[in-house]
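Lab notebook, bench 4. Still working through the backlog of constructs that have no structural model yet. Next entry is a single chain of 145 residues. Request: give me the structure tokens for it.
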Amino acid sequence: MSDRFWEIKKLEQMTDQEWESLCDGCARCCLLKLEDEDTGALFFTNVSCHLLDIENCNCKDYPNRKLLVPECLQVRRMPISEYQWLPKTCAYRLVSQGQPLPEWHPLISGDQQSVQQVGVTVESFAVSEDYIHPQQLQDHIIELF
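Model written out:
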């Protein structure tokens, strides 16, 4: 991979390796979201997909996630106009908007643990959807920085 490829390439020009390296491993995209039908406003919850290994912030079955969870976001196949479904700190969203990656992003810091060190991952607050009734989702709305 070339240095700082995300600053010179568009998302659609990236290799699979470059694309995957943009993911900081925060697992925020694995949190269930609610959309206000009247306003279109998007709300994140602290409830994660049942496939998320919360402690390690990774999918338990990444290759088959779309089969097992049809509503799973496959970012590479999403139109950029739908990146509103991604957290504001997401590298894919930032790069698509021409914004810089945050200092704690592993591609900038050089440290895979920097995301955990600054508290961006969901491991400290997420709860699996296995333990939440769908009608309780509104009670789990959170603000993400």
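Notes after review: The chain is about 20% helix and 15% strand. Residues 5-142 form one domain. Flag for follow-up if needed.
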